[in-house]
Design a protein that fits this description.
Layout: H1 3-12, H2 19-33, E1 34-38, E2 44-50, H3 53-67, E3 72-80, E4 83-93, H4 95-104, H5 125-139, E5 140-142, E6 151-155, H6 158-170, E7 176-180, E8 183-188, H7 191-200, H8 204-255, H9 262-273, H10 279-285, H11 292-311
Antiparallel strand pairs: 1-2, 2-4, 3-4, 5-6, 6-8, 7-8
Helix pairs in contact: 1-3, 1-5, 2-3, 2-5, 7-8, 8-9, 8-11, 9-11, 10-11
Length: about 325
Amino acid sequence: MSFSNEVRDESARIIPEKSCCMRAELAALIAMRGETAVNEDGTCTLQLESENAVAARKAYRLLKEVCSLQASASVVQRKRFKQKRFYLSQVKLQRDDLQFLQELGLIDGEGNAVKYLDTKITAKNCCKRAYLRGLFMCKGFINRPEANYHLEMVFNDTRMARDVKKLTGKLDLETGIGERKNNLIVYIKDSEKIVDFLRLIGTSKSLLEFENVRIIKSMRNQVNRQVNCETANLGKTIDASVRQVELIEALIARLGVGRIPVQLRELALLRIDHPDSTLKELGALMNPPLTKSGVAYRMRKLEIFAEENLYGA
């Protein structure tokens, strides 16, 4: 199962405690997946479609809890992208039912499913979170944290996309909005903000999994940076040592050891005998010992002396 499906599945298993939150989440499900149709006998049928059996059961339960309506559940087979099986929750609405759903803000005056975000339904912060959870169940996608950080919700309506961006902003969650083919996407690419989103919609299990992987990934990146830094420093040390040894050997071949100044002679011989040692290690071998900065100063003096005598002033 993909991480997106794991988050959607966990979202579908969360049943809000408050009736207002149930109503808000049902409103999101109807806005994204609800359709109404007029029957021959003048009644109306409300249908909610889902690719997930758990989400279909949730829609079934919310219709019962919020609207006191008994829905029927069925499975249909049809191919849409890679999905072949869909779950339907259907309820036949009488005139009184339509009026009640209109009062709840779930059906408009013409008996159509409301396809926009009703600010009255999401007036409370708890309802905003429930509405977002319903939206993600229907239109959400999130990368596995091992890959690039990316969360998005896809909409085919400009008004809905902009309203959702405003909704997340009211919850102190900054989101971006972009266009892909004929759809608009509300997206998050920052890992901290994705964590905030998962916390807002209440998917604690997915949040912990995301955080665990994020921490491991961060530690791995930190170790890699440190190793790369140490490798680069080691490479510089080796290059400098090879250059210094070659310079000192050429100097000794031309002048002999005795003509090297006394204060530089010990360091020159130590460098030849210990080509792999760092300046700090060379300093510990000297008598008396020198600090790294002291060795670096003498090494510069030695290099200048060698270059003057080998290549001229």
